[in-house]
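SEVERITY: medium
COMPONENT: batch folding queue
REPORTER: lab tech (J.R.)

DESCRIPTION
The queue accepted two submissions in a row. Attaching both inputs and their returned structure tokens so the on-call engineer can compare them side by side.

ATTACHMENT 1
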Amino acid sequence: MIKKYLIQFLEYLEIEKNRSKKTIQNYHFYLSRFVTWFGDTKK
């Protein structure tokens, strides 16, 4: 479920905010790591 929002956010950054491809890649990398960490620690 959260991954859907992550993709929507990244699309927003690219389309509405006109962020560079590298910026989008970096956001994706670090936010994905956070989501993975959060899922692992949530018990």
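ATTACHMENT 2
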Amino acid sequence: MPGDTEKRLPQARYALFLLFLVSVLCYVDRTIIAAVAEDIKGEMGLTDGELGFLYGTSFSVLFALFGFPIGRLSDLLPRTRLMAAGLSFWSIMTMFAGVAWSFGTLALSRIGLGLGEATANPSSHSLISQYFPRKSRGRALAVYLTGTSLGGGLGLYIGGWMVQNWSDVCGSVPIGGACEISGWRAAMLLVGAPGVILAILVSRLREPQRPNLEKGRLGDLLLREFSASVPPLTLWAISREGGSVALLKNLAWLALLAGLCTGLTIWTGDSAQWIGFGIGLYALVSWITVLKIRDRPLFYLTYGDPVFVLALAGFTMLACISLSIGFWAVPYAIRVLEMPPADAGLYMGLSVAVTAGVGAMTGGFLVDWWRKFDQRAPLWIGIVVLVGKAPFIYLMFTTSDQTLFLWVFLIQSLFGSLFAASAAVLVQELVLVRMRGTAAAAFALTILLVSLAFGPYMLGKISELSGSLGGAIMSVYALAPFCLLCLVLAARQLTGQSDAIRLARARAYGEPTA
């Protein structure tokens, strides 16, 4: 009722403010490691490959692994309490990084960060959709998502400032022994603490009532959802629902991935990286297998559709390029260009904060305009980004001028954020209305898992072997021809497709006609 909506508007705005802060902290805690990476490396004697693992693989595997079931949890449990639990957990794990004593404990903190942050988006999106009426829901979600760009920039700024200035300001901190800890450790403790307090406030938010909420068999429902993607529960789910043939195929995938990752471990010596990567890939394969068993129409419009698969491969490689450069650019500026950490954090953080929001909005308007003339517009925009970034990436990592580096970083960051809306729009158009939430989550989590678990580590490993961080970063563009090929082939496959064709395809695999 209009009267009820007006009375609850102040509560909704307060809730949105808290959720915005959650979004900010989510990305502060996620990205701050880029600004303090050089100090961590120096203190703990880590390699560039280990830094890449800490940023990408250790975070992304658990984030993706639990992303699907936690999304389901947000439909079954009180979302405010679920998010509060996740927020407090990842904040504590961020602070744990500040007292970590080894590579292993640092990795554990990043794993915990990924697990906790998996609760943020599903719960927040669901809450905002109920707090606000349809007419203002888009603006409310935009406010929440703005926190991601602000948080990413703040993480770089705070990290850079703390590692450079902590020794000068620690004496004024009314805590005994403050000056005995290093700047990067103080930064982790500083950014983690507010999340624990915010979690208490989030837990006290009003939980909107939801119609038709499933009750009574919570344990069975949770087991069903977690068994789709979390090993070894996946073996039970596939055997029970798909039979012996499906189980044997899954075990064959397990053996193949185990053999591949064992070989890569022997070759590189980095067991943590390849064990984590292998677990992530096996979980993804298992989830796709369960999806095919449980929802054949959805499977054949996503992982069984050449357009979806080619677009997913292309955008995954494009994200791998962007995310890898996004992480390694700050250590490069500090290590190679000898930029003061506070300056690198400030100027590159500002670039991230501004371009992430502006680029996403610009990309959204661009894809809406272009689609009026060509339904393949999301794929063409991906190609524009891939080609447009290339000269700026080359200039960034060949110049010795700090000012030029910062301006070019700003431009390439803007390019890099243009394709997010295009990918999201494409996925929505490839599936039926009832499938859009799951398809979007599958697309995003697959991209995140593969690109973050592979790109940052590989660039770090190449840097170790070559002795050139700049050359290693530019080597990520070796993916460009394959990325271009996938996007072009996806565009060719998409030509002539329509909603009617997709509906007929779904019905051929069991979609109800009514």
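NOTES FROM REPORTER
The two ends are 31 Å apart (CA to CA).
No errors were logged for either attachment.
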